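Why run this: before we spend reagent on co-expression, it is cheaper to look at a predicted model of the complex and decide which construct boundaries make sense. The entries below are exactly what would go into the expression plan.
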Amino acid sequence: MKLCNVEPTEVEAISVFVINCFNCADKHYVSLCKTVQEATDAAAKEGWHGYETDDEVCSTACPKCIKEAIQNEAEARV
Ligand SMILES: [Zn+2]
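The model came back. Tokens follow.
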């Protein structure tokens, strides 16, 4: 048997977008998206959002940090 390289037409390039949580070092990987807009939409479905509270603004946060921010906000209002 003789081996050769795979057929170039069967090679597909995919983009992977990496979203970094501003609060912790958590990363979220979104692939199979073509644009940043698609990536941010996909991230939103996974619970990644920016948020704004009375005393804090965060451009990009992971679901865990958003949960914490919601709890902090609730406690601050008690
Ligand atoms: Zn986070």
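Strands lie at 16-20, 27-31, 49-52, 57-61. Residues 46 and 67 are 13 Å apart (CA to CA). Bring this page to Monday's planning discussion.
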